[in-house]
Amino acid sequence: MEDLAPGTVLDGRFVVRRRLGAGGFGTVYLADQRVFDVTLRQVALKLFHRGLVTEANAREQLNDAVVLMRLQEEEDHPEASRHLITVLDAGFLREPEPRAFVAMEHAAGYRLAGGGTARTLRDLVDAFRPVPVELALRWITQVLRAVAWMHALDPPVLHCDLKADNVLPDGPDALKVADFGLAQLAFGAVGLWGGAGALTCQSPETLAGVEPTPASDVYSLGLLLHEVLAGRHPFHEVDLAATAAGDDEAGRRRRHVEARRTGPARLTEADNPDLVDHPLLGEVIAKCLRFRATERYGNAAVLLDEIGAYTSGGELTVSLPGVRVPEGATELRRLLAEAEAFRRRGRPAEARERAGAALARFPGEAAPHASLARLSLTPADWPAALRLCAAGLALPDLSPADAAELLDLSAEAYETGGQPSLAARMRERAAAARKGRRR
């Protein structure tokens, strides 16, 4: 079937706006969901290929989407729901021609500092490569919260197709797990395991046709974390070799199983310079990617706890020179840590984007003003640094330490702009602020 034109009406229930993407399952459109000619919301509408889901097997094939809809309605999971794409509807449409569908919430994407929009986690990895450890673990933690909830259900729900293309940005600081077309209920009576997602994201046992367990999703999560940190999939060369050899589907599958038996090379600072300070992360990933399922983390909740213990143990504390972050401001500290990591790596555009995100979310704090001002201390941008410092100095209840820091940054800005007398005056005011005097 050819792509549907904008304005196409499907059963009087959906109006197509534009094509979002396509894959082996079919095509996804941005569409208006309507009831009695009243638009309820915009949705991501997945239309399946006619040969893949038919009227005869639609109930069976879409059962998992229906189960997830029921679980998302019935279960109390406020934290997980922030990171799960909500399944809104599923069924069979008859006009303009019979097609099975799943309607899901539409993720807005992420506007990149250099222009364009990141629609998937893969887009974010490409834009931020190499991704700082702090940011990589923030991303994977959001994915883990969603999958951990699925694994904690009774019986557990497995995703079975976790990959960077199925994790969608929804604004500046939120990721959502999507594409539950292959989700399975483990150990339950919802049919037998009969397939898998993309070969590159599968565990050894699913590649071998064995019924998956939560540890199978853990393997995929390990592949995902490896890809985020390295900027490439650990088995990206396997498909290249299979194509060069002319392998059929069975041959590709065997080649992937053998690659997993050997295991990927350990990540090093050559893959991501940030890893020189985080050697233990390699051990976490290696445990996710053990060939035997019983040797991995048992489910996503266990892996989430491991990542949480790692991040809270001090290993991810990034020095923030000249920036005082209030106690308990965890999110602000993370954003500024990411900005500082990019600055140290000589990537000013990404650093400013992160500091700008911090300022947008915490405009009443001095720390993001100081961070962004520091990043603006260049011959071209020093006036912007002055404006940021002035805005910070105008904040109510500013502490003497924060005032002094902003005044020192003002002095540096004047020095950068070739105005030493004004710089000296700012230094005097900074010294007075440190003593608690009027600034």
Automatic annotation (TrEMBL):
GO terms for molecular function: protein serine/threonine kinase activity. Pfam families: Pkinase (PF00069). Keywords: ATP-binding, Kinase, Nucleotide-binding, Serine/threonine-protein kinase, Transferase. The keyword ATP-binding applies. InterPro entries: Kinase-like_dom_sf (IPR011009), Prot_kinase_dom (IPR000719), Protein_kinase_ATP_BS (IPR017441), TPR-like_helical_dom_sf (IPR011990). Residues 246-272, 420-439 are annotated as: Disordered. This is non-specific serine/threonine protein kinase. It comes from Saccharothrix xinjiangensis.
